[in-house]
Amino acid sequence: RRNWPAGPTPLPLIGNLLSLRSPAPGYEAFAKWTKKYGDIYTFWLGTRPYILVSSYEALKETFIKDGETYADKKPMAFQEAFRGGSYGVVETNGPFWREHRRFAIHQFRDFGVGKDRMEQRIMIEVEDIFRNCDKTLGDGVDLTDIFDRAIGNVINQMLFGYRFDETRADEFRTIRAFFNFNSGEFASFSMRVQFFLPWMGYIMPGPTILDRFKKYQKGFTEFFGTQIANHKNEIDFELEDNSDYVEAYLKEQRKREKEGDFESFSTKQLSNMVLDLWFAALMTTSNTMTWCFAYTLNYPDAQKKLHEELDRVIGSDRQITTADKPNLPYTNAYINEIQRTANLVPLNLLHMTTKDTVLKGYHIPKGTGVVAQISTVMYDDEVFPEPYVFNPDRFIDEEGKLKKVEQLVPFSVGKRQCLGEGLAKMELFLFVANFFNRYQIVPDASGAPEIDKAKLGGMHTKEFRAILKKRHGEL
Ligand code: HEM
């Protein structure tokens, strides 16, 4: 330990892993260590040291200014076993990762992320949400269920070119069940431990994490495999325009194969890419929306302020578009505060140094675990006093304008910064602004949902229902 920056004392074999439970999901332990050891310290996952970078200033010096050094991901043996090798974009490294990340970003841009084309697609989902919500007026409704399909539709449309309409709602629910790591099988402490320390699976009772992943493998392979096979049969390879990501990928694959390259754009890589993109897009955006409703039900005064702004600036039930965004500072602040308080990754993804470097005077060899510890930055009580309190006004300046706060980093920073940030921001704005312009939400008879993650024991709310009241037109 003398060779690493100071940090909490690790226990034999499990390191500091237990601290993520005292209390869950670990924010407080990370905050305490940052105060005690500074913004660069060593955290042990099992027998391996990870250097945690836990202030915005330190992130700037490392992951941002010296991004290449922090760009690799730590290979996870069970991931590779599940995928059948090193595939996809979340877990891969080097030129292979870079090429596929670039290709995906390029395609997303072509499909209109950040532009009108994407906005129109999202607005179709907004209309669908309205139809579904209107059916429930006055009754309690599980909003997560309604929004999940909308969010799934946006990403499915981009990847495979179709949405799950009413007739395909069951198909969507089946796929979502594969990804529903928050409930049931992947929620136990044993699974969380094994996520970081897969070998613990062999000494802990019950199935190993790999067994559990494998159980879902068939379902994934079937769903994604069928989509890819259908595309192969249906697409017109001569057409220059692409209607979705899979089509663009298959054309690139064919082009490369003609040049004798059968490796870089393989079908196996394609199924892992769509798996990564589907998973990363659905779970994060869905969980953010769920926290949005949970916080809103607990903070009715904030909802009132949101309605006041919408009434003043929009003043009717017309569609709100991204053109309205600059005129809605409180709505933007509200979304910022949802992302900050939701704080989805208590311990961010595990990176690895690509070369030797020096941190705090310590020599850090190539291949060392490093983490951009964004959850500590977003709950830093010096930047965000009373960090657990939901208060959108933190993002409003004295003139009532939206304040830019660089410590708001829900999409992380550096070379691995979220690939779907543009898409997620557009969805969050259009969903939140349009939903709250149309409805007021109040808790059902069971009261507002619990939002204290320490009491919840993790990152997910219990299932809850809200009652919707329409704010414009006939009731
Ligand atoms: C509110 C929504 C979202 C949040 C809060 C979020 C957050 C994050 C975070 C914290 C990371 C880890 C970055 C790191 O390694 O330091 C990440 C990576 C990633 N996200 Fe997102 N994300 C969201 C939505 C999306 C969407 C909509 C997509 C896809 C369309 C997406 C695709 C990805 C991918 C592929 C990566 C891995 C990138 C790489 O390793 O190169 N995310 N995201």
TrEMBL record:
Q: Where does heme bind?
A: 418
Q: Which SUPFAM superfamilies match?
A: Cytochrome P450
Keywords (A to Z) from UniProt? Heme, Iron, Metal-binding, Monooxygenase, Oxidoreductase, Signal
Q: Is Hydrolase among the key words of this record?
A: no
Q: Which family does it belong to?
A: Belongs to the cytochrome P450 family.
Quote the protein name from its UniProt record. Answer: Cytochrome P450
Q: Per its Swiss-Prot or TrEMBL entry, what cofactor is needed?
A: heme
GO cellular component, alphabetical, reads:
cytoplasm
Q: Name one GO biological process term.
A: organic acid metabolic process
Q: Per its UniProt record, what InterPro entries does this chain match? A: Cyt_P450, Cyt_P450_CS, Cyt_P450_E_grp-I, Cyt_P450_sf, Cytochrome_P450_fam2
Name the Gene Ontology molecular function terms of this record.
heme binding; iron ion binding; oxidoreductase activity, acting on paired donors, with incorporation or reduction of molecular oxygen, reduced flavin or flavoprotein as one donor, and incorporation of one atom of oxygen
Q: Which CDD domains match?
A: CYP1_2-like
Species in which this protein is naturally found = Caenorhabditis nigoni
Record PROSITE patterns:
CYTOCHROME_P450 (PS00086)
Specify the taxonomic lineage.
Eukaryota, Metazoa, Ecdysozoa, Nematoda, Chromadorea
